[in-house]
Each structure stands twice: as C-alpha cells, then as structure tokens.
Amino acid sequence: MNRERYHLLLTTAGRPVQHGWWGSEATARRKFSSWVGEYSTIPGARITLADEETGTVLTEWPAEA
Q1: CA–CA separation, 1 vs 13, rounded Å?
Q2: CA trace torsion 16, 22, 27, 32 (10° rounding)
Q3: d(Cα 40, Cα 6) in Å, to the nearest integer?
C-alpha cells in the first residue's frame, strides 16, 4: 500500500505548479479546500485530488461542467 496515495496537483495553463501527497484522504481533502481558497484567483488554475492507488480523480476545481 502506498503511504502517500492521495495526490493533490495545482496546474495553470496545463503546467504543474505545485504537488502534495498525503496518506490520509481526510487530510488531503482539507488541503484541497485550503488550496482552492488560496489559489482560486490565479488565472487558469486547476486543482485536482486523485487517489494514486486506484487512479481515481476524487475531486477537482473548478468542477467540470
């Protein structure tokens, strides 16, 4: 089992700007909310939280239409 399975990624204009990995989904979701609050004003920002073990995107901002 991957101890840091939850991957948080901030991109702008399709390029990675910041990454974070956590072993706890609850912690990763708190960080996701924090990053949305902190980085949502950056033009073209996209924040994605994924479970690296399953390959599933858990949430993303902005939400897909």
Answers
A1: 32
A2: 10
A3: 20
Are 4 and 23 a contacting pair, CB within 8 Å?
A: yes
Which residue type does 55 have?
G
The model's pTM? 0.90
Whole-number CA gyration radius for the chain? 11
**Mean pLDDT across the chain:** 93
Tell me, what's the pLDDT at 2? 58
Task: Return the SS3 of 10.
Answer: strand
| Residues sharing a CB contact under 8 Å with residue 22, sequence separation 6 or more, in sequence order | 4, 6, 8, 28, 31
